[in-house]
């Protein structure tokens, strides 16, 4: 996100200076966040939002009901900030899936329901 500031500086004699400045702003959460996927249940796409307070290695893995890994939705070093992943389940069968996020010592799992 960009923030733009416009300014004018005056003295008793009149305008001294004016201009603008653009700053890039990257919001960073204070703690790890792993928001509920939406929509859920879904057909065929769902959106996953998560936040990282520090740059860290992340594994965002999707498992089927039997506990077999279906895919990695995100894997590797990621910067601090908010991130978004969209999973398209078009090529997968209807049913319950488990989405797990591991970032350092932070581990959280949630259920997803794909309905076709």
Structure report:
There is one protein chain. The protein is built from no helices and 9 strands. It has strands at residues 2-11, 14-24, 33-34, 45-52, 56-63, 69-78, 81-88, 95-103, 106-114. It has a 4-stranded antiparallel beta sheet, with no helix packed on it.
Task: Please give the structural blueprint.
Blueprint: E1 2-11, E2 14-24, E3 33-34, E4 45-52, E5 56-63, E6 69-78, E7 81-88, E8 95-103, E9 106-114
Antiparallel strand pairs: 1-2, 3-4, 4-7, 5-6, 5-8, 8-9
Number of discrete helical segments: 0
Tell me the span between the first and last alpha carbons. 36 Å
Class by helix and strand content?
mainly beta
Average per-residue pLDDT, rounded, comes to 94
* Spatial ordering of strands, largest sheet: 6-5-8-9
Query: Strand portion, in percent?
Result: over 45%
Biggest beta sheet summary: 4 strands, antiparallel
Shape type? elongated
Number of strands: 9
- What is Rg? 21 Å
Order of helices and strands: EEEEEEEEE
**Unreliable stretches covering 5 or more consecutive residues:** none
The helix fraction, in percent, is under 10%
Short description:
With 116 residues, the chain is mostly beta strands. The protein is 0% helix and 65% strand. The protein has strands spanning 2-11, 14-24, 33-34, 45-52, 56-63, 69-78, 81-88, 95-103, 106-114.
Which characteristics define this entry?
single chain; 116 residues; 4-stranded antiparallel beta sheet
């Amino acid at each position: 996100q960009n923030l733009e500031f416009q300014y004018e500086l005056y003295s008793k004699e009149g305008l001294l200076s004016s201009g603008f400045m653009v700053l890039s702003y990257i919001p960073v959460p204070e703690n790890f966040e792993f928001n509920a996927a939406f929509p859920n249940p879904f057909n065929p796409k769902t959106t996953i939002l998560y936040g990282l307070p520090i740059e860290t290695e992340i594994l965002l893995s999707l498992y089927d009901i039997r506990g077999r890994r279906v895919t990695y939705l995100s894997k590797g070093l990621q910067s601090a900030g908010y991130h978004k992943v969209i999973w398209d389940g078009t090529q997968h069968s209807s049913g319950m899936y488990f989405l797990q996020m591991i970032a350092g010592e932070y581990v959280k799992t949630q259920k997803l329901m794909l309905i076709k």
